[in-house]
Amino acid sequence: MSHIQNSIEGKQLSVKRLTHSYGGQNAISDISFDIAAGEIVALLGPSGCGKSTVLRAIAGLIQPKAGRIVLGDDDLAGVSARARGIGMVFQNYALFPHLTVAENIAYPLACQQVPREERRGRVEEMLSLVRLGGYGNRLPRELSGGQQQRVAVARAIAGRPSLLLLDEPFGALDRALRFDLQVELLHLQKTLGITTLIVTHDQEEAQSVANRLVLMNKGNVEQIDTPMAVYDKPNTLFVNTFIGQTNVLAGTVAQLEPEATLVTLSGGGSLTLPRRLNFTVGSDVAVTFRPEEVRLAAQPGENTLAVSVTVSLPLGPTLVHDLVFEDGTNLRASEVRGPSTTIPQTGSRLFAEIDVSRAHVFPAQPEVSQ
Ligand SMILES: Nc1ncnc2c1ncn2[C@@H]1O[C@H](COP(=O)(O)OP(=O)(O)OP(=O)(O)O)[C@@H](O)[C@H]1O
Ligand SMILES: [Mg+2]
To answer: Does residue 47 have its Cβ closer than 6 Å to ligand 1?
Structure first.
């Protein structure tokens, strides 16, 4: 492996104000982000938010309506897809079924007119990188789904691209296999130092492989941050609810103090947040807090909400409580199980104590739909 280690040089990618529409409808608007050389970034968002469109524009498969794409020192405007030096694994993209594994991997090399002898060596190198040594003569249909995806990755990197684009590369595979391949991909990406943009709608996949996440919604970027920052400090209600689980309660800002804000909840009760929020009194807001920020108590207290227990389920090391707030809103709490943890009975009336220091408050309707 070592002889190839320095042979791929990942380049920095800059996407600047990228906009594209199909027909009259904008699929992506004003998308900007950078990926440092050798970095792995995940593009994440719900189906139809424009992820594949961003990738297609970077790969040169579509001409964006506006914006710039710069790879290393080169502006890619007017550069053909083939000349961009970008490797891509497509969403649901099959291998050439009539070509062997080795022929599939050699295909981009043949396009680059790499001499036959060198091609053979590089194919072997790629096969061992994706741990498929000895599979070169098989046809794709003689491989498992995971093995086929590894061949697709090998084919994408065989031409030593300075940027690797992966569009849901493991989407069709079961969870356990997906996890194994993610670990493998991460190792490969690190070994090669190849700049990588991976598209996924699986947030666990994104968080486990990427240095940073680009969160997209409805053709726009909502946040670019590390996986932990996106989880702990979401910029928007969309990001907060999209990443991980969260409870959302509607409320109104009732009182602003220098170091506290009182929010009355539509479903009854109130919460006092330990800081002055940037809202005016009377603003409608959404208060959010994660299940692990809720503790169940037998007695009411500060920042507690009266709830009844729908069901409490032990999930491995944690205990998950599904609760109903007075107005019918479902809430969820979770706690790490200890030897003395008791499981409350269905229907129990308890008090959910919210860790308000970690709660978030957003405008009630942050996005007016177009
Ligand atoms: N060739 C096309 N012609 C017309 N509209 C398209 C075309 N391709 C995509 N779209 C539309 O553009 C929007 C963005 O599509 P895109 O494929 O980029 O989404 P995505 O985020 O990759 O979704 P998914 O997670 O389902 O793959 C969608 O509304 C889609 O319907
Ligand atoms: Mg897509």
So the answer is: yes
Q: State whether the beta carbon of 22 lies less than 6 angstroms from ligand 1.
A: yes
Hey, where are the domains in the chain?
2-240, 247-363
Given 3-state DSSP classes, what are the helix, strand and coil percentages for the chain, each rounded to the nearest 5? 25, 35, 40
Provide the whole-model pTM.
0.89
For ligand 1, atom 28, the nearest C-alpha belongs to 48
CATH architecture label of 2-240:
3-Layer(aba) Sandwich (3.40)
Contact criterion met (CB below 8 Å) for 307 and 324: yes
Residue nearest to atom 6 of ligand 1 (CA): 22
Task: Yes or no: say if 183 and 209 are a contact pair by the CB < 8 Å rule.
Answer: no
CATH class of 247-363: mainly beta
pLDDT tens by residue, 223-232:
999 999 999 9
pLDDT, tens digit (0-9, with 9 covering 90-100), for 106-162: 998 988 888 999 999 999 998 988 889 999 999 999 998 888 988 998 999 888 899
